[in-house]
Design a protein that fits this description.
Length: about 550
Amino acid sequence: MKRLPIILLAVCILVCGGGMFALNKFRAAAMNSGPKVSDVFKVDRGPVEVQVVESGAIEAIRVVELKSRAAGRLAKLLRDEGDQVAAGELIATIDPTETRLQVDQNSAQLRGAEASLARQDIEIRQRRVTAATTLERAQQRVAQLEREAKVQPSLTRSGIESAQAALVTAEKQLDLLVKSTQPNERTSAQSEADQAELNFDNAVKEQGRLDALLKQEYVSQREVDAQRLQVELARSRRDTARTRLARLAEQQLNERRQAEERVRQARSDLARAKAGTVQDSGKLAELKDARIAVREAQVALADVDALIAGRRQGQASVDQIRSSLSDSQRQLAETSIKAPFAGVITKRLVQEGELVSSLSSFSSGTPIVRLEDRSQMLVKLNINEIDVAKLREGMRATILIDALPKDSFDGEVTKVAPAKSQAEAGAGQGQVVRYEVEVRLDNPNGKIKSGMTAKCTMKVIDLAKVIRVPVDYLIKEGDKRYVMVLPEKPTPTDLGKKTEVKTGAESASFIQILSGLKEGVSLKRPPYNGPKRDGSSITVEG
């Protein structure tokens, strides 16, 4: 009985030993059946994708701050923040009173300048006719004297008769000019000047009366302004009449002198005619004087060109005043601030009653409201230099907005900055260089607001169902690429056949195979030659 436990113990030892032997044998058989599954990859077809993902702020493409080219007090602000406005819709108005007064002043100045210019035109025409007539007469006189010098003996008698007739005519003309024509002209001009003076005085008195009534609010400001314009017109007419009267005296003096000169000339002609042949030398002197008169008449005619130059100066003044009038009229139109395009008002920058400065070369002007066109939105991204090298304009993007998690938007890369925008401190000691990239949304809606954060995903590489292998199954030797191809029934010690392949697109996990492999082929992972991965410590010698 004591031997039974010993026998049972021996049996158990034998059975257990046999089991362990069988288990070890099974493991050996499994290992001998082929390489480890984790080191083998069967070539298949699948996607190879490379994406660039970055977040940025949404902005409207068109954002403007509306300003006025006319300075003044903001009379009305018709729209508030958040209001949608149409293109050309009135948003605000500037008090136009001061600008309208400037328009009225420029209009009055323009009318006065145009009247002065018309007066110069009349004077130029008169002087031209007078100078041309004098020159023509002087030339005729020279021709006549030349003929007389040739045939003087035979023309002495007829010359005396002609000279006597010319003297009588000249004296009559002088007498008519002195006793009738000039007094009538002076009387008419004086009458016009007196009437213009009277009209001006009456207009000034009426202006004073209306100013008094305006203080008592019996008349309107428009009537007072209209009367002021009448005063300016009356003053212009008075000045015109005075000028005409002043110039008339000078003109009449010149005409009288010319008439007297004709009388003197006629008497001289008569004297020379009576002198006869003994005065041939005098005839030659007279011819010389006549030729001098021709030159003087030519000079007088050239003086008309000086008047024309003065007229050009007057025309320049008219053009300048007209330009000022156009500018003041434009400024009057600028008192109405209208939306340049349809959009939403995002900010009111001034309030009604505030003074705003005008937009000019000396001032940037006071912004009134900020207007955004949200029909076209974009996302501004700052992307590092590694990822920006993968992007190009026209590349499609998927946009997710944090504030709208249920919506997805499509977009397109419209700008990749050619120069860096900023450099940020990286994880190491260097800096991360970033470039500005703009992605325009294809389908923005009313929910999107500027300033929202959006995440943009750009697929740099998007290949579907291509022959691919994991990147760690690839051997790189210079410019060539290899894989280890296993036979159909590999042994446990089989490392595969080194086979050259041509590769294409590469992602972080897979690389595309262009040639050298077929789908379904098994590959052996190349041996790892780097540091140990079993968690053992690594000693770094220094």
